[in-house]
Design goal:
497 residues; alpha/beta; Aminopeptidase; Aminopeptidase i, Domain 2; 2 domains; nine-stranded mixed sheet; five-stranded mixed sheet; aminopeptidase; metal-binding; Peptidase_M18_dom2; EC 3.4.11.21; zinc ion binding
Length: 497
């Protein structure tokens, strides 16, 4: 692919990846078309993973790890890892979302992550995510994306709040509530019926006697309210239509709101990308593209090249599929003992510890580009510009895990492909965000550097990044994977001569 085309390809990726589940599906599609083989955590990898081949594994459908085993791999050799995350701040439909007020159909939502939620007003939203469906007594996931603008969160007219431009304040529970339509008589009757059924179900859930429970047939008894009772029927009908199933087949869902205004290239000279979810689908896209490119040149590779895309970074990474889980340690542990010949060596922790000492984790999350209207909020010597290359992020208090040996390694990788780099620290009087870097490197005991492309409006519903930076990050990742095994032994820190 021509480097200039990466920005257009990235925009298509963004529009297709409106939830972590869809982001993983987009990455899977690319990997499967590039001779990667899907494997499961449930299977025995010793009979599946071989040298010179590429694989990927998912967890929860929202996190994915892909890797290429070098043709010369042996236990104790290095892992070169790029890590990022699939989630972004958003609004998620509540487990019981049915609401109505003053003739409006409303949908209850829950705030996810640290979004700039005032930017979420006056936007038209579709919904996307995962629906669990009962199909022939098996519960299977259906990943959906409804791009129809069905929801909106309207602001209050300035005529009714003259101070709105002075400081826009709102209550996340009562004011950040989308409207989905207008009620009509038929629906009102239907909701009344559902409400009555709901009361009956609540009685059955509220500790009634065995005799009272016995009055309900198997078809009538539900341990939880049905989906139609928990959510507006019109919404459930729409979801069922998208899934291609009956309403009764829907058992549960995890759905989020996404802005239906599509991601796009903009600016006078097409120098910008305007979109939500740049943080951190940029790294997911660039990492997957670079790994595919690097997987075509492994005949002399002695290490394992690995990409990890985690869910739940925006809420602390503490989940079964987050960076603070055992997902990447488990994968590294399994691979560290595989010979790649269809056999598995005797479990030898020395192999794992040897690999950890030789390995490196490149934690890629977005960085703060300098904002022209708020330049005083940046440290005077550290003002990253858009389209000026990836940003190495440094923090003395280890909010970022960067140190000098890591900077030298990435600098050498960048020089080989002529990618410019920038440096960033926050002001001493400013808070500093963190990434998955400190989490993963402390769990694995490997060296790490934090890096990412610069952007504006991080955590807004509409962010901005540079078009040229997309190709730069792809090239940097590709150079990291292709040159790490050769460069790593030349950077001596704890090595004994």
């Amino acid at each position: 692919m021509a480097l200039k085309s990466y920005a257009n390809e990235f925009v298509s990726f963004l529009n297709a990846s409106t939830s972590p589940y869809l982001a993983v599906e987009s990455i899977k599609k690319l990997l499967l078309s590039s001779n990667f083989t899907e494997i499961s955590e449930r299977s025995n990898w010793s009979t599946k993973v071989k040298k010179g081949q590429s694989y990927f594994v998912t967890r929860n459908g929202s996190s994915i790890i892909a890797f290429t085993v070098g043709a010369n791999w042996k236990p104790g050799n290095s892992f070169s890892i790029v890590g990022c995350h699939t989630d972004s701040p958003t609004l998620r439909i509540k487990p019981i979302s049915s609401n109505s007020s003053n003739g409006y159909i409303q949908v209850g939502v829950e705030c996810y992550g640290g979004g700039i939620f005032h930017t979420f007003f006056d936007r038209s939203y579709g919904i996307s995510g995962r629906v669990m469906i009962n199909s022939n007594d098996k519960l299977i996931p259906k990943i959906i994306q409804i791009n129809k603008p069905i929801l909106n969160i309207p602001t209050l007219a300035i005529h009714l709040d003259r101070a709105v431009n002075q400081k826009f304040e709102f209550n996340k529970e009562t004011h950040l509530l989308p409207i989905a339509g207008l009620e009509n008589k038929a629906e009102t009757l239907d909701q009344t019926k559902n409400s009555n059924n709901s009361k009956q179900d609540e009685t059955s859930q509220g500790g009634c006697s065995d005799h009272e429970q016995g009055k309900l047939s198997d078809e009538e008894f539900h341990s939880l309210q049905t989906m139609v009772q928990r959510h507006n029927k019109l919404l459930i009908d729409l979801i069922a239509k998208e899934c291609g199933c009956e309403v009764s087949a829907i058992e549960d869902f995890e759905l989020i709101l996404h802005d239906t205004n599509p991601s796009t290239i903009g600016g006078i000279n097409d120098e910008f990308i305007f979109s939500g979810r740049l943080d951190n689908l940029t790294s997911c896209f660039c990492g997957s593209q670079a790994l595919v490119r690097a997987s075509k040149n492994i005949e002399n590779e002695s290490g394992i090249r690995l990409l990890a895309c985690f869910d739940h970074e925006e809420i602390g990474s503490q989940s079964a599929q987050g960076a603070d889980s055992n997902f990447i340690p488990a994968v590294v542990d399994r691979l560290s003992s595989i010979l790649g010949t269809g056999e598995e060596s005797i479990i030898n922790k020395n192999h794992l510890y040897q690999s950890a000492a030789k390995s490196f984790f490149l934690s890629s999350d977005m960085a703060h580009g300098v904002h022209p209207n708020y330049a005083l909020n940046y440290e005077s010597k550290h003002k990253p510009g858009l389209n000026k290359g990836p940003v190495i992020k440094i923090n003395a208090n280890q909010r970022y895990a960067t140190n000098s040996p890591g900077i030298l390694l990435v600098k050498k990788c960048a020089e080989l492909v002529k990618v410019p780099l920038q440096l960033f620290v926050v002001r001493n009087d400013s808070p500093c965000g963190s990434t998955i870097g400190p989490i993963v490197c402390s769990k694995l005991g490997i060296r790490c550097l934090d890096i990412g492309n610069p952007q504006l409006s991080m955590h807004s519903i509409r962010e901005t990044c540079g078009t040229d930076d997309v190709a730069s990050l792809v090239l940097l990742f590709e150079s990291f994977w292709e040159n790490f095994s050769r460069l790593e032994p030349t950077i001596l820190v704890d090595a004994v001569e």
